[in-house]
Amino acid sequence: MPTDGPDVAHIRDGARCRVVSGSHTGKAGIVADRKLSKTGHVTITVRQDDGICFKTLARNVTPA
After folding, report:
1. Which of 30, 32, 39, 51 has its CA 20 to 30 A from that of 14?
2. Do the beta carbons of residue 31 and residue 52 sit within 8 Å?
3. Distance from C-alpha of 37 to C-alpha of 19, rounded to nearest angstrom
4. How confident is the model at residue 8 (pLDDT cuts 50, 70, 90)?
5. CATH of domain 6-63
6. What mean pLDDT value characterizes the chain?
7. Cα torsion at 33, 54, 59, 21 (round to 10°)?
């Protein structure tokens, strides 16, 4: 079972982040929801400053 490992431990609800890979590259916002998927990957919802939300994998973001 894959896991995203300890490298995503710093991504918590309420933290500012910037997306550095994946389909949302270049976007930034606040982590609104952090979950562990059935496959073992950490997924997050990012809420941008304009209110738009999107989902991405935690491994695709870095702290802002």
Report:
1. 39
2. no
3. 19
4. confident
5. 2.30.30.30
6. 91
7. -160
